[in-house]
Amino acid sequence: MSTLIIVKPNWTENEVFLSELSNLIEKHGLCIIFSKKIHMSRDFWMEFYIQHTGSSYFSELIQWMSSSPSLFLVVDGPDALSLVRWQIIGRNGLGLRGKHQISELMNVAHASDSEKSAAREITLLYSSLSV
Fold first, then answer.
1. Counting CB atoms within 10 angstroms of each CB, which of 4, 63, 74, 128 has the fewest?
2. Is the pLDDT assigned to residue 131 strictly greater than 70?
3. How many angstroms separate the CA atoms of 36 and 101, rounded?
4. How far is CA 11 from CA 15, 38, 100, in A?
5. 100 an active-site residue?
6. What is the DSSP secondary structure assignment for residue 51, as one 8-state letter?
7. Element housing 4 (H / E)
8. 120-126 long-range contacts, CB within 8 A, separation 24+
9. Domains of the chain: which residue ranges?
10. Are 12 and 37 in contact (CB under 8 A)?
């Protein structure tokens, strides 16, 4: 099963963070099958974060994510989704998010939260590249 990691703006040039992320992916026996830094449009991010429409932070999130490039990584391997979400990127103060994030909104990276989300997000990514 493949999953998606997005290294968010402010972190795509941070060599310490990127090295740590790469080492953790390798340590967990996962493989990066796609890697590209892309400056996505507001429209892309509005579709990507559609489930957050109407939230108090939606506008700020879209503005930040569309302000500069993000690094998109599609990662594959046994139990990739769970390993990335809980062991590598982390949640609630754990993993790379807990170690590096500025705030809950301006955290270092996105990780798909379910197989359904991963499939939708990867499809959205690939379809935006073929336009």
1. 63
2. no
3. 22
4. 8, 13, 9
5. no
6. G
7. strand 2-7
8. 121/4, 121/48, 122/2, 122/4, 122/74, 124/44, 124/47, 124/48, 125/4, 125/72, 125/74
9. 2-129
10. yes
What's the farthest any 2 CA atoms get from each other in the chain?
Answer: 39
- The first and second tokens of residue 84, run together, are 């990335």
Helices (H), the chain: 15-27, 42-48, 58-65, 80-82, 95-100, 115-129
Strands 70-76 and 2-7: antiparallel
First to last CA, the chain: 25
pTM: 0.94
pLDDT in tens, 93-105: 678 988 887 777 7
Closest alpha carbon to 110 in 1, 2, 9: 9
The set of residues, in sequence order, having a beta carbon less than 8 Å from that of 46 and lying 6+ positions away, is 53, 62
Query: Above 80 in pLDDT, residue 130?
Result: no
Cα–Cα distances (Å) from 82 to 41, 78, 90, 116, 130, in that order, read 29, 9, 10, 13, 28
Give the CATH fold of the 2-129 domain.
Answer: Alpha-Beta Plaits (3.30.70)
48-66 pLDDT, tens digit per residue, is 999 999 999 999 999 999 9
